[in-house]
Description:
By secondary structure, the chain is an alpha/beta fold. It has helices at 58-66, 87-92, 109-120, 127-136, 153-166, 183-199, 210-216, 239-250; strands spanning 12-13, 16-29, 32-43, 47-51, 73-78, 81-82, 94-97, 171-175, 202-206, 219-224, 227-233. Adenosine-5'-triphosphate (ATP) binds at residues 29, 34, 52, 54-60.
Amino acid sequence: MHLSHTVRRRRRCPGGPAMLTANKLSKSYGGAPALDALDLEVPAGEVFCLLGPNGAGKTTTLNLFLGFTRPSSGAAYVGAAHVEADPLGARRKIAYVPEQVRLYPHLSGCENLAYFLGLSQARAPSSAELSRLLTAAGLPEGAVHRPASGYSKGMRQKVVLALSQAKRAAALLLDEPTSGLDPGAVRELCSAIRRESDRGAAVLMVTHDLGAVASIARRIGVMKAGRLVEVTSATGVSEAEVIALYRRHFDPPGDAAPPLPSRSSAAAAPAPEVLS
Ligand SMILES: Nc1ncnc2c1ncn2[C@@H]1O[C@H](COP(=O)(O)OP(=O)(O)OP(=O)(O)O)[C@@H](O)[C@H]1O
């Protein structure tokens, strides 16, 4: 079926209309495929977790949905917006939690939220409304008006999750959000992500945290060398079952105790700015 760039009938996937769609989405660097003909649909309200070893193409997938990089072939859509043809239209529908969220350090959480929200919509919510959004996302009340320079990683993430809620983002993309978080912060983050999916956001989360996957994923996609090699339901699965799934794909044969991805593989690389 031909899909026009701008006018496109929204396809339906099992859980409802697809909010994130990849059609034969491919990206090569210097002739080497980083992502190879990805077909994927994430409907509204679903949490889809992408697993795979380093270099599998997970971040490349996010970058293509975000319009940070152009596909070599194929197409990515956010709702009906074709990312390449209508990057701003697509971006307006997305909230993005990079591995390291960067806020304006001299501004408070409330001021950061007002700023990022102002980039995407004309209506400026009141300070009381912004505070409510931030505390609903899990930011401690006492931190709302404090400079973000003193925020932990988990607190910075809460500002983006409040932004996601405030602008009613159709899609929430997260790149290794639990790396470097303590177990309590991981639980809080998972609850906040669940609230966003309950609201109707399509969630696409790249992670090495198999416990978090078991806690929030509705479907799991396994990536290997740029290809999506398995998609499976995660409803009711335990962490042990997610570990078994991962081992089935990535255990070297004959190796008794292969390494699993760590829960907190914090990388120091700076991430792009918060999208609004
Ligand atoms: N800007 C780039 N230039 C050249 N090669 C790149 C670039 N970005 C990614 N790649 C390559 O594309 C492949 C997929 O990378 P990608 O970052 O998507 O993997 P990943 O699954 O997210 O890995 P990780 O778990 O380490 O984040 C890798 O081989 C990587 O080296």
